[in-house]
From TrEMBL:
Residues 34-53 are annotated as: Disordered. The lineage of its organism: Bacteria, Pseudomonadati, Pseudomonadota, Alphaproteobacteria, Hyphomicrobiales. One of its GO terms (molecular function) is DNA binding. Residues 98-219 form the Peptidase S24/S26A/S26B/S26C domain. Keywords: DNA-binding, Transcription, Transcription regulation. Signal peptide: none annotated. InterPro entries: Lambda_DNA-bd_dom_sf, LexA-like, LexA/Signal_pep-like_sf, Peptidase_S24_S26A/B/C. SUPFAM superfamilies: lambda repressor-like DNA-binding domains (SSF47413), LexA/Signal peptidase (SSF51306). This is Phage repressor protein C with HTH and peptisase S24 domain. It comes from Hoeflea halophila.
Length: 223
């Protein structure tokens, strides 16, 4: 399904693939350097703006990409490395998955743009073959008491980036400010996300979609 968010995310991913910013991609394609800026993706009235077919055509030509390549990015697919798994992703390992603490997850360099584990500094935790066998699945260790009474300090949450998310699902969210939190998804629209706190001592949260880096579903908890 084509959506405003997926089209723009695909353009961002294409720019990154070629070591460019959104502005750099526009410039290479002979377009106004601000054409793909985030501020241009919606109007003053809040209406969504879409890249034109002419702009997309120029971008594909400038980067030597095919329409199939671009549609793969729209679908969230990533280039496949020699090991048979998406570039930068940890291949599934029977009985073990990447592990990171919540505090570290707020730092840069541990995730790619899709919220998949990448880079160095990850530990490994042993876990049953399922869900460990799912590509991209990783573990986050709860630190502190902010998720009580549902999750305690030291509990392990198994997260699956890219999994379909519905209202009522428990999710891990990372904001563009680097804040990482576990919440319950209350409502999601093309413009905003509403989250319910697991701990009643903490307020519920609302974000503009532009403020969210990624959101992933919690599929398992080791308690």
């Amino acid at each position: 399904m084509l959506s405003h968010e997926r089209i723009w995310s695909a353009l961002d991913a294409l720019a990154e693939r070629h070591g460019l910013t959104a502005s750099g991609l526009a410039r290479r394609a002979g377009l106004d350097p601000t054409a793909f800026n985030k501020s241009k993706r919606s109007g003053a009235d809040g209406r969504q703006r879409w890249p034109s077919t002419e702009s997309l055509s120029k971008v594909l030509e400038a980067t030597g990409s095919s329409l199939d390549d671009f549609m793969g990015l729209v679908r969230g697919e990533r280039p496949v490395a020699e090991n048979g798994f998406p570039e930068g992703a940890f291949p599934p390992q029977t009985g073990s998955i990447p592990l990171l603490g919540f505090a570290q997850a707020g730092s840069g360099g541990f995730f790619d743009d899709g919220g998949f584990p990448a880079g160095q500094g990850w530990d490994v935790v042993d876990f049953p073959a399922q869900p460990a066998g799912r590509p991209g699945v990783y573990a986050l260790e709860v630190q502190g008491e902010s998720m009580m009474p549902l999750y305690r300090d030291g509990d392990i949450l198994i997260v699956e980036p890219g999994a379909q998310i519905r209202r009522g699902d428990r999710v891990v969210v990372r904001s563009r400010e680097g804040e990482v939190m576990a919440k319950v998804l209350n409502r999601q629209t093309p413009r905003s996300i509403e989250l319910i706190s697991l701990n009643t001592d903490h307020p519920n949260r609302s974000f503009d979609v532009s403020e969210i880096d990624w959101i992933a579903r919690i599929i398992w908890a080791s308690q």
